[in-house]
């Protein structure tokens, strides 16, 4: 396996970090991997290794304000800032792998961003895979707070009204401890700008689910306390023109790729990829 790192300059001048894991030989497919809120692409090395063994080239970026990318931590002024970065990144990757089947894999916030990207740029995407995608708002965020976050996102996007509970990441204490001690993980409060951007996307998406016309893999732990499984089930019901495969893992927490049952989750991802490529 070959691993490489690089950067690109975003449209507003920020330096965005990205990395890749690739087979020693020629890859048979490409996977764009989008990480979740507060974390970074380096936490997906084991997932990338499994995909590389399958023959895929895996490319992942650290979203702006995350990991080794520049930007105020866990902050955006609007959703379009994220999306412009993804378009730029995808263009760079496609130039490196012309003609290869392209898959998009997103976890949590990265699943939300993947959905936003694919809805607007579906042409050329062979399949979309989502892990615990942020497609619904947790019950502890009241409708009033959602509305306030939307207003604050416009007038005071830097305010930070709420954070995430790291104990909801995984049932494996070692994973939680590694998450908390990782200097590249931001575990503080989420900015109103970013929260408002995600809440707005969550509101807009359901009316567009039927636009998806590609193989879709939905994966979610039923005991996820950070992102409601209801969002994934609504996508499954609404994506009437997609070829949907879904796996709801009983009792698993939010980061299904970091749960004790992670190998089953990875095996399901690889089996789906094999099925799509074999069609």
Summarize this structure briefly.
The protein is of the alpha/beta class and about 280 residues long. It has helices spanning about 45-55, 80-95, 110-120, 145-155, 175-180, 190-205, 230-240, 260-275; strands at about 1-10, 15-20, 30-35, 55-60, 100-105, 125-130, 160-165, 190, 215-220, 245-250. It has one domain: Alpha/Beta hydrolase fold, catalytic domain (Rossmann fold, 3-Layer(aba) Sandwich).
Describe this structure in words.
The protein is an alpha/beta fold and 279 residues long. It has eight helices and ten strands. It has an eight-stranded mixed β-sheet with strand order 1-2-4-3-5-6-9-10, sandwiched between helices. The longest helix has 18 residues, at 79-96.
- Tell me roughly what share of residues is in helical segments: 25-40%
For this structure, the quaternary state is single chain
* CATH architecture label: 3-Layer(aba) Sandwich
Largest pleated sheet: 8 strands, mixed
Q: Look at the structure and name the CATH superfamily.
A: Alpha/Beta hydrolase fold, catalytic domain
Number of strands: 10
* Whole-number mean pLDDT: 92
CATH class: Alpha Beta
Spatial order of the strands forming the largest sheet: 1-2-4-3-5-6-9-10
How many structural units, i.e. domains?
A: 1
Order of helices and strands: EEEHEHEHEHEHEHEHEH
- Count the DSSP helices: 8
Computed over alpha carbons, the radius of gyration is: 17 Å
Query: How far apart, in Å, are the first and last alpha carbons?
Result: 27 Å
The best one-word shape is globular
Q: Would you tell me the structural class of the helices and strands?
A: alpha/beta
Annotated CATH topology: Rossmann fold
| Relative strand content | 15-25%
């Amino acid at each position: 396996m070959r691993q490489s790192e690089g950067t690109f300059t975003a449209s507003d001048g920020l330096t965005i970090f990205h990395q890749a894991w690739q087979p020693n030989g020629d890859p048979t497919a490409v996977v764009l991997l989008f990480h979740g809120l507060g974390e970074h692409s380096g936490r997906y090395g084991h997932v990338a290794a499994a995909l590389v063994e399958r023959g895929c080239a895996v490319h992942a970026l650290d979203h702006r304000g995350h990991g080794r990318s520049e930007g105020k931590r866990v902050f955006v002024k609007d959703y379009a800032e994220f999306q412009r970065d993804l378009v730029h990144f995808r263009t760079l990757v496609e130039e490196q792998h012309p003609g290869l089947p392209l898959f998009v894999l997103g976890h949590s916030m990265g699943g939300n961003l993947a959905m936003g990207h694919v809805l607007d740029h579906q042409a050329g995407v062979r399949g979309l895979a989502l892990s615990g995608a942020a497609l619904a708002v947790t019950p502890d965020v009241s409708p009033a707070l959602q509305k306030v976050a939307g207003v604050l996102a416009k007038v005071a996007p830097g305010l930070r009204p709420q954070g995430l509970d790291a104990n909801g990441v995984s049932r494996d204490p070692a994973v939680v401890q590694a998450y908390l001690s990782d200097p590249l993980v931001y575990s503080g409060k989420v900015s109103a700008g970013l929260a408002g951007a995600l809440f707005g996307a969550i509101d807009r998406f359901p009316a567009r689910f039927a636009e998806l016309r590609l193989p879709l893999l939905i994966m979610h732990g039923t005991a996820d306390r950070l992102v409601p499984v209801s969002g994934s089930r609504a996508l499954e019901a609404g994506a009437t023109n997609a070829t949907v495969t879904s796996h709801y893992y009983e009792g698993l927490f939010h980061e299904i790729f970091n749960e004790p049952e992670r190998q089953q989750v990875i095996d399901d991802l690889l089996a789906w990829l094999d099925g799509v490529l074999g069609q």
